[in-house]
What we know:
Mean pLDDT: 83
Helix content: over 70%
Number of strands: 0
Order of helices and strands: HHHHHHHHHHHHHHHHHHHH
Shape: globular
Number of helices: 20
Amino acid sequence: MRFGRNLAAGIAYTLITAAVSLAVVPLYLRYLGIEAYGLIGFNMTLQGVLQLLDLGLTPAVSREVARAREIRDAGGARTLLRTLEVVFWAVAALIGIGIALSAPLIADRWLDAGTLGQGSVAAAVALMGITIAARWPAGLYAGALVGAHRMTVVSALGVGYILIANLGVVLVLAFWSATIEAFFIWQAGCALAYSLSARIAAWRVLEGRGGARFDLAKLRSIARFAIGLSGVALTGIVVTQLDKVMLSRLLPLSAFGQYMLATAVVTALYGFINAVFRVVFPRFTAVVTRGSEDELIGDYRLLTAGLGSTWLPMMTVVAICAHPLLLLWTGSPAVADATAPILSILAIGTALHGMMYLPFSVQLAMGATRLPLTINLVLVAIQVPLIVLLTLRLGALGGAFAWLVLHLVYLHLGTFLMHRRIMRGWGLTWLWRDVYPRLGWCLVFGAAGAALIARTDPPWLQLLVGAGAGLGAMGAALLSSGYRLAAFKRLLTT
Length: 494
């Protein structure tokens, strides 16, 4: 029953996070303007880039806590967490100091301040550093909770943080100071409170700090996996953040803000995939630890059917309803006209990327970090010239097209390379029986929905039509999956 409960908690967290994150954006635009929102987008990109400093330790602690539960080694898990928290808090301090000292240079040499002024931008960047540093250790504690199958706790903490950080800052902007500096001061305080709360929760789940100590031997025990994963993380960050980094340099903040507006939508929806990953990864780890390959293959294919029947239709709705969604969300026809094509293309690429989280989860559960590293290196080699060519020709829309092409390649290349080494011989079966049929239903219902939307008005009715197309695709995908309801019920109740 824990798998289903954790999955439900993760999805609920995703829905709340997405709803709140998207709901506050029009208010940010109202109080701060599109240029200041560009800085908020830059903060999101900076957080993503700095994830490389995680060095693979967060997934490593999830994996090791899950393994410790399977072999009943709670003391080892506590010592590992104690050792890693010293590392994480030290890295957090370095991040905060480093970004604060670099803020004037970033404001002068990297960002186009526009009407905000260089001084205001530099102050905002310095506060970004403090905010990122304050939130940094929370990732470690969340990783430990995920490994302990406590997604309900992670979700509760996350919802509290999202509500206070986002809704609280709206009150700050409305009644205290409508400035980007005030925005980041509030975010920094909330981030610190979140990290401290996550710390308390993680130690409570691991039954206190009794016997826990700093032990370099524990770091060495996970070094190989963590180092391999840090390479995966580094190349993965390049894959997911390079378009944003390049556009932040090549475009004025107003145009970059439009791109990040589209990115905000797909990033919010990524929470669904992250919720699935956080539940599936420790499950796969436990199955691998037991050595049951048949169980692993069965869960892998069943979860693909479930994910493909929900995630792909969801992103289909976003792709065909991009314009009415943005219009109702922002209230600005100009913003919707400029951003809708970007959002549609990003949504399709993101749909494909989301499906590859399941193969990635299996790779990590088996400790095969060299495989995703190889895949990411190939993708980076393709991505760099692709982004340069398309962005210089098409601007922000080019970055979106590069994202789509890249993940078309990833779906097929990643599957081919994985199933040469892991679950050998299942690659074509996975694509043809588990992925392509669901993509096909989404194409059919998506095309029909797009045709109806073009003949429909007003925007709220267009959204209803799009939702109907998504539900049709979801129903067709589930009915044609070949899996009985009992199979999904068995998975959710274990």
